Amino acid sequence: MKRLQLFLINSFLCFCVLSSSAQRFQVNAGPVYGHYTDSTTLFWMRVHTTQPPQRNKKEKQALDTYINQFFVDQYGLELNYIDQCKHLDNNQLLIKGQVKWEREIKKDIQFLVGSCALQMPMIPFFWNTKRENIYLRMLEKDKDFMIWMGDNVYYLLGQWKKNYQMNKVNIRARKDKKLSKLLANTQHYATWDDHDYGPNNSDRLYPGKFRSLEIFKNYWPNPSFGTKETPGVFFSFTRSDASFFVLDTRFYAEKGVQMIGKSQMDWLKKELINSTSNFKFIVSGTQILGVTDQEDFEDYGSEKEELLSFLSDNKISGIVFLSGDRHYAELLCNERPNDYPLYEFTCSPLTSPYNPGYPRVLANRVEGTFHIGQNFGRVRLEGADTDRICILELYDFYGALLWSKEIPLKMLKYSF
Fold first, then answer.
1. 62-87: pLDDT as tens digits
2. Rg (the chain; Cα; Å)
């Protein structure tokens, strides 16, 4: 009888301990999967704790154990490490780390692109709540990852002035039921544009840019952010025979002077020179090849000419530009004497309204590619050896294919 009593008491105590541990932490946003290798992937999530986080070893071990159990139970993955744990108000923790992820390395890849994702304002009469259904259509498409090309959230009415407001905007997006399914379905990479950087058309003179940088870094599991010497959100990564050079077009921008700045330009040139990939995608929140009465690379001094001349002088093959911002979609093509043509695939918006004041006729627009309305893009790289091909696809709100453009690798080289 005594042994039975001891057993019941011990069982009760164990139950209390386990219940207390289970209640201490709870994942309520995420995960979002980011940069990956063949064996690991970075992740982001938000954890709610019913007790104020203790800055001690036991609390960290409890958190590690809980997060690991979450991945094992939900996704069959194993925690590798927690790299960052930031404390927000109301006992909210932002977690960034790495989990073990066995992933097949493929030669043929496909990825989604999109930009301009305005969250639904609390004014239902002025907003179609079904706009977020586009994320469900994106979820249905085959993909290896996605690149967000800026305005991934929108800071409105001075929200960019306060940390808690910026966190609130980002968390609200991460808790969207439709978007969260997409974020947990594949890997994601992101750069920013003005509305997830600061006020409209904000540039390097914006005084809150370091606050914005810190917030952005907290929410996106990119492989890196700028360099040790040059802060920003620019980075590069490689998939199969494609390299991606993702630019920061806000932190150093100044109208009439520069868009990416000397240090970032030097970084980009070095990366391009050293790349041996067949395809080289330059990703920008601001349109590169467009010449309009709206904001584009043409507005920023001589940097555009510097970059295009560098590509020609150094015979950099395989270049394709990807961009957002416009609130419409199109494919641009710059024909160049004695050079291969330069293409730019612009995709926008995901959920934001279109702007009817934007120009509808450009001399370098490929006929039949203009679309004004919700959209997203997909890029496919297929074929063997010299017969590799880049396929650009634009989809509408319903996930229907609007147009497709095939660009053979041999047409992006100087030897064709």
1. 888 899 999 999 999 999 999 999 98
2. 23
β-sheet bridge partners, residue 342 = 334
What confidence tens digit (pLDDT) does each residue in 19-44 have? 334 447 889 999 999 999 999 999 99
Q: Where do we find the tokens 């020179």?
A: 273
Average of per-residue pLDDT across 213-235:
97
The residue count of the chain comes to: 416
Burial of 270 (0-12, 13-18, 19+ CB in 10 A): exposed
Q: Which residues contact 288 (CB under 8 A, 6 or more apart)?
A: 282, 296, 297, 304, 321, 323, 344
Could you report the per-residue pLDDT of 180-209, keeping only the tens digit for each? 999 999 999 999 999 999 999 999 999 999
Q: Which residues pair with 98 in a beta bridge?
A: 42, 81
Give the model's pLDDT for residue 53: 55
What does the alpha-carbon distance between residue 28 and residue 46 come to, in Å, rounded to a whole number? 6
* Separation of alpha carbons 86 and 64, rounded Å: 14
Please list the residues that pair with 25 across neighbouring strands.
Answer: 49
